[in-house]
Amino acid sequence: MASVKKLILNRLFFVYFLVLFTGISVIAKVAYTQIREKEDLKNRQKKITIEDIIVKPMRGDILASDGKVLATSVPSYAIRMDPCSDGLTNELFNENIDSLALCLARMPGRESAGSYKQKIVTARRQKKRYLMIDPGVDYIMLKKIKKYPLFRLGSNKGGLIIETEENRKQPHEGLAGRTIGYLTKDPFGNYPGLEGAYNTFLRGKEGVRIVQRLWGGARMPVNSDETVDPVDGGDVVSTIDVHIQDVAETSLRKCLTRHNAHHGSVIVMEVATGEVKAIVNLGKAGNGNYSERYNYALGEAVEPGSTFKLMSYMAAMEDGYIQLTDSVNNGTGVVSYLGKEVNDDHRKETMGWLTVEEAFAFSSNVSITKMINKYYKGKERQFINRLYAMNLNNKLDIELSGESEPFVKYPDNNLWSGISLTQIAYGYEVLLTPIHTLTFYNAVANNGKMVKPRFVKELRRHGSLEERKEVTVIKSSVASQATIHKAKQMMEAVVNYGTAKRIKTDLYRIAGKTGTAQIANEQSGYRNKQHYASFAGYFPADRPKYSCIVTVYAPSQNGTGGGVVAAPVFREIADKIYAADPDMNEVLKPEKHGMMADIPYSKSGFYGDLAYVWKTLEIPVGKDSPKTECVSVTAGEKEVEVKARGMNKNLVPNVVDMGLKDALFLLEQRGLRVSVRGRGRIITQSVAPGSEIARNHIIVLEMSQK
Q1: Does the CA dihedral 190-196-199-200 come out positive or negative?
Q2: Which of 15, 160, 545, 580 is the most exposed place for a label (fewest CB within 10 A)?
Q3: Can you name the residues that pair with 679 across neighbouring β-strands?
């Protein structure tokens, strides 16, 4: 018995001392950790919880020449949910899921409440922690979503995940969209247009922020020397003029629709600087509508046809072979070279003898081929070298990507044939883009100086100028001044009496050249009879300010020639630019012209307002004008005649011939309810003037325009 008791006591002592030893060891280890390993553990804990966050900069804007926004960044927010977040208990989830689903379903164009609930419940059951709720909402909707049940509890308890994404918007609805460009998902930033050309400047530089992850998923910024602030992107001020761009796009769209064409382009350039004020590229989509699908103006190198005749004539003039008054015999308007027949589209005007100017004005294929063949047969290299000297074989090296290489065949080319010389003379067996053709025509308008087309004026950052883009001269002169003068005279003849005489106007002078080329097909050659219509020129011809080219590919109805299809678009654009540009219009001064403009019509109304307008516009008013509240107005021969209009506050006033603003004030002041039909000036009122006023009675006003 004693031995058993002793055994038990020994075991108890053993357990006691074992527990005591363990406790002392734990206490000692805690004390050692607190004292000796404290700093090391803190550093290790920071390494685990501290992370680098990439801070994206704000992308800069692309602006029109007057500062209007063409492209800007607008943030959108993707809404996701973690239905298994740490703080989202079953009680919270079950209490709020129905309310959350109802709120989500009330958003415009979204799923039903039942669909949302099923999706969220299923994700929670399957432990999916990154559920897409909505791929993109704006800031106003985001503020509402943050107040929804569950979501208002934040990320830990409510599972709300917000991801910010930068969206690029063009406020002018795609105007010059292909030139402005757009952002893609390409990780290498392969963006077209100005977005791509100036991507580095627009994008800015990313920053780095050091944060520490706290319990619950929150992040707290940490002060660190490693923090790098982002550098926001700068703004690109383009050369695009929104008004001219809109005019050009509207005119081209009407043309393409009228002629059922495949696609077309327009470029408007400032002669002295090479600034591209408008560039339009419209192609037909599957639904028959036209939109910016490809930059044809830069990327489509085609056989230009008759617009190339200007280069051929100038080459022969530079070499001293022809003068404007020289004559060429066209015969019947048909000629053949090694079995290749060349004929004129305008045979009534081009048969028989023509001067060089007339041959150009009527776009005679026969004349130009005869002259070039006569003077350059056996000297083909001299002709092509002259064209090369005009920079027709080199790319313009503009800042936008996608410019096609020009091609002017040289005699040692394997494809050179016995008819190549005469074919090149009138725009075949050569390839030029519209912008290259326009650059040459612009050089002629610019007295021979060829300037590079440019799409950007300035680079700015936070409103301050960082870089100004200067004019780049490609060639100081493409030809002698004598040849330039003759070329200008020929192009004016085209509009005065030649193939573009339908666009002649008495308001200002136009110079240019029509072009109509057959389109070659790889399989069928020229047998498909499709055409490429164009017109290139400048205005006003006596003091050129703008050059312009219009190209229309494959028009199929209402005509196919450049004079019928493309030239009217040029004229419409030029008319609207001319009308809106005060620098092009001489201000008429009465003392110079010995007359005064007619006294303008004015509505009747409040005398004080009218008198202010008359004084501002320096319109003479009759000396005996009554100084009453309301007046009737008539326009005399030399001055405005004003008569008093009585206004009894207790009777219905006479508001006929007034504007709506003044009439509403008078009628509603007297307690009448007003119904308006039409717009303009008031011509009748349903309640006769001078009638007694019935409160809340309706009076109907008929306006001059429906």
Answers
A1: positive
A2: 15
A3: 705
Half-sphere exposure of 622 (CA within 13 A, CB side): 17
- The residue ranges of every structural domain in the chain are 42-68+172-235, 78-160, 294-535, 589-641, 647-706
What's residue 595's pLDDT?
A: 39
SS3 548: strand
**CA distance linking residue 648 with residue 339, whole number of Å:** 93
What phi and psi, each to the nearest 5 degrees, are found at residue 134? -150, 130
Task: Enter the CATH code of domain 42-68+172-235.
Answer: 3.90.1310.10
The segments of the chain whose pLDDT lies below 50 read 215-216, 587-597
Residue 587 has a pLDDT of: 47
Question: Which fold is adopted by the domain 647-706?
Answer: Trypsin Inhibitor V; Chain A (3.30.10)
**Fold exhibited by the domain 294-535:** Beta-lactamase (3.40.710)
pLDDT at 593: 40
Token pair for 75:
């943030």
pLDDT tens digits, one per residue of 37-50: 666 655 555 555 66
CA distances to 59, 527, 581, 587 from 577, rounded to whole Å, are: 33, 39, 6, 16
Strands (E), 576-697: 605-606, 630-635, 640-644, 673-677, 679-685
In Å, how far are 236, 460, 472, 507, 645 from 467, measured between CA atoms? 10, 7, 15, 39, 62
For the chain, the C-alpha Rg in angstroms (whole number) is 39
Q: What is the pLDDT of residue 153?
A: 86
By the 8 A CB rule, do 222 and 211 touch? yes
Q: Give CA–CA dist 90/86, Å, rounded.
A: 11
Work out the angle at residue 496's Cα, subtended by the Cα atoms of residues 494 and 502, and round it to the nearest 5 degrees: 85
* Dihedral of alpha carbons 653, 659, 660, 661, sign: negative
* pLDDT at residue 511, as a whole number: 98
- C-alpha span between 154 and 303 (Å, rounded): 64
Peptide bond into 187 cis (omega under 30): no
pLDDT at 250: 94
